Amino acid sequence: MTVNDIKIFKNKVVLNKKGNLIKFVSIKNIFFKKFGEIYFNEIIYKKKKGWIKHLKTSCLMQCVVGKVRFHFIDKNLKKKKYILESSSGKIIKIPANIWFCFTSLAKKSILVNLIENCHQDSEIEKKNEIENCKIFK
Phi and psi (nearest 5°) for 70? Predict the structure, then answer.
């Protein structure tokens, strides 16, 4: 997989005076394959989480609070950046074998992440920095 395989999907946001309804995933979505588990990831302002790479599973992520900048690097050291905001209703699909990290651009941000299989330490790799590659600034 390469960074070109990362996909962004616009999801439905139902506007409401009392608070919007932001859809995450439906069995009808073309990007949804199967359910493993869902978790929420809280990121504090300017803190970086990652680098991480799933070896077998893809991630579906949506920012539900705040604003998050993602950085991606593939096996060919091609890079890509993307920003998700809670107000956008957008979902990012990160395929297996793509290194990624993320940083909060708001005081606090929260990502929801749906992965296709239950978490296994043997299925992921983590690094503090990516070797042989300049880290995004």
Answer: -100, 145
How far apart, in whole angstroms, are the C-alpha atoms of residue 65 and residue 113? 13
- Sequence ranges of the domains in the chain: 3-126
Chain segment 34-89, per-residue pLDDT in tens: 788 889 999 999 888 989 999 999 999 999 999 999 999 999 999 999 999 998 88
69 touches 135 (CB < 8 A): no
DSSP E strand boundaries for 15-136: 21-22, 37-44, 48-54, 59-65, 67-73, 79-85, 90-94, 99-104, 108-115, 124-126
Strand partners, 100: 52, 72
User: Cβ distance 73 to 5 under 8 Å?
Assistant: no
**CA angle at residue 81 from 120 to 30, to 5 degrees?**
60
Distance CA 12, CA 113 (A): 17
Q: How many percent of the chain have pLDDT more than 90?
A: 50
Question: What's the CATH code, domain 3-126?
Answer: 2.60.120.10
Nearest to 62 by CA among 92, 32, 83: 92
